[in-house]
Amino acid sequence: MTDFQEQQPQQPYYPPRPPYEPTQPITTEPGTTIWPSGGHVPPPPVEPPVAVAAAAPGARRRAKRGVGLMAAVAIAAAAIGGGAATLVQQLTSDAPATASSAVNGTNVSASSKGTVAGVAAAVSPAIVEISASSNAGKSTGSGVIITSDGEIVTNNHVISGASAVSVQLSDGKTYEATVVGTDPDKDLALIKLNGASGLKTATLGDSSKIKVGEEVVAIGSPEGLTGTVTSGIVSALDRDVTVAKDDGGQDQQQGGQQYDPRQGWPFEFGGQQFNGDTGSSKTTYKAIQTDASLNPGNSGGALINMNGEIIGINSAMYSPSSSSGSTAGSVGLGFAIPIDTVKADLDSLRAGGDN
After folding, report:
1. Residues 331-346: pLDDT tens digits?
2. Which of 157, 160, 246, 345 is an active site residue?
3. Cβ–Cβ < 8 Å for 344, 179
4. What is the mean pLDDT of the chain?
5. Alpha-carbon distance 303 to 288, whole Å?
6. Strands 309-317 and 302-304
7. Where does the pLDDT of residue 87 fall: very low under 50, low under 70, confident under 90, or very high at 90 and above?
8. Is the N or the C terminus of the chain less surrounded, counting Cβ atoms within 10 Å?
9. 299, 315, 319, 330: which is the annotated catalytic residue?
10. Sheet containing 33-34: which strands, arranged edge to edge?
11. Rounded Cα–Cα distance for residues 267 and 152 (Å)
């Protein structure tokens, strides 16, 4: 009897796998990871700072990647430009952003820009009242300070024939003034305050950019009422206005009688005379027409745009006579010398003009 040994079932043979290095992930743009198997792993959600502090080490690693993503966004925003950078700053800072309180080139505050009150507050300190004494008595006009040491532009007819000139500032302080130069052909004059310094000056604008219908403000001293403010619009441009001028610096005569500036400056327009006879000595210039109220004493004052820039020097107005023969008030026909004419004449006036 032969013995047979019981055979155990044999297991299949699998040869050992050769050793290999673990496959490394391939990283593309920040926030996206691709494994060799082709699976796509979305970026982990960004957790708030409190959750990151309390999370397990694995969670902290994910949070770091999220913080890096936020930093990348902030850097990109800074690279795009100031507007995006400001937005990031506003979102990440507790301090509110503040706007500039002034408009470049003027002293009109941003909150008051475009208002009569804002323009008046900004420019009034640069407008003065001029008193000129002559053999005819004392007349009143206005002027515009253009330098901090007291150079003032006004109309020639305001100071023509004057033996003494005094100026009152908007704060009530008074100076004596000297006539530097005159240009009767343009009805312009330059005077200088004696001993003045640190004065508020006006900003001279560009009258070539004026358009009909634009809002304007007039400031002057009509009838001796210092610092009077009126407003209106530019109603026409390039009006040929003819005004009287002095003859050799002598006191002006109107129909054999001495001219009194307080009764309204005579001028001609369209072949007609207004406010009296202009006499034989006269000059014509291109003027800005405005319906801002002008009255005797506004001559030499400022016509101002809504940015607070001087665009003209008020010089003439139409004022019909009443039945009693006295001069009536403004009816909305005023004229100003364009400021570009003034700027072109300044060097000549500083050199003495036609004196």
Report:
1. 788 999 999 999 999 9
2. 157
3. no
4. 73
5. 9
6. antiparallel
7. very low
8. N
9. 299
10. 26-27, 33-34, 40-41
11. 24
d(CA 153, CA 175): 15
pTM above 0.70, yes or no: no
Buried residues in 111-129 as b, exposed as e (16+ CB within 10 A)? ebbebbebbbbbbbbbbbb
How far apart CA 354 and CA 341 sit, in angstroms, is 16
d(CA 3, CA 218): 136
Write out the H or E segment, with its range, that includes residue 134. strand 127-134
CA–CA distance, 89 with 98 (Å, rounded to integer):
12
Q: Does residue 40 have an active-site annotation?
A: no
Residue 354 among the catalytic residues: no
R_g of the chain computed on alpha carbons = 40
Structure tokens at 111: 């909150």
Choose the catalytic residue: 124, 139, 183, 187: 187
**pLDDT given at position 18:** 57
Return d(Cα 254, Cα 337) in angstroms, integer. Answer: 23
Q: pLDDT digits over 104-155, tens only? A: 344 555 556 679 999 999 999 999 999 999 887 888 899 999 999 999 999 9
What pLDDT digit, counting tens, does each position of 90-99 carry? 444 444 444 3
Q: Is the pLDDT of residue 171 over 70?
A: yes
C-alpha closest to that of 318 among 326, 329, 309, 308: 329
Contact 304, 219 (CB under 8 A): yes
Tell the residue number behind the tokens 């507050």, with chain if given. 121
With 0-12 CB in 10 A as exposed, 13-18 as middle and 19+ as buried, what is 107? middle
Residue 289 has pLDDT above 90, yes or no: yes
